[in-house]
Amino acid sequence: MKETKINGVYKDKNQLFTKNPKHLSGVKVYNEKIKRIKGDEYRSWMPYRSKLAAFLQKKGSIELKPDYNILYLGAATGTTVSHISDILTEGMIYAVESSAVAMKKLIEVSKKRKNIVPIYEDAFHFEKYQAIVPNVDFLYQDISQRNQSEIFSENTKNFLKNNSKAILMVKARSIDVALKPKDAYKKVVKDLESEGLIINKLVDLSPYEKDHAAVIIKKI
Questions:
Q1: pLDDT by residue (tens digit) across 89-107?
Q2: What domains lie within the chain, and their CATH numbers?
Q3: What distance in Å separates the CA atoms of residue 99 and residue 77, rounded to the nearest whole number?
Q4: How far apart are CA 49 and CA 30, in angstroms?
């Protein structure tokens, strides 16, 4: 097991892992594999189940310091959130999800992981959780809606610290089914730039996620 350049992320035979907290020994979140090495447990981080893992497998790079506070929009049942939870040993994840079914599972994950704050709200109405969420060091969004760029821009403006980065996971067909994926990505980039956000990189997530791309921005 080798530590990668990204804090808290490990690799073994081209497979990604994060380290399971000691108090969660043997606990899985989504039936992932667990490797035990010298008293430590490592949970496999599967790129076909997590877009962030897919991004990292495509040589994408992010900085996640142990004490970061993160706003996660579209947390779903907590698959990717749980791996970020492994990494943020001193920070907090404010996990926003609008599906009642997914929220039930996310709450169960957060009961075991005290650095996750589940928030049952629509990310489009950021003002409803503004009193709960502080300014954050990193923002992550995975929401399959036509207005995903607008949601991302508004939350970035209101919560992300200056000189910090964020990732938008773009689902091309949610933008416009008539557009080719590459054109949908270009539209999103143009929309974000018009809001004053600096585009650092765009990474196509195939073959792990069809018609998806990660857009990395920096807020000045």
A1: 999 999 999 999 999 999 9
A2: 46-219 (3.40.50.150)
A3: 9
A4: 9
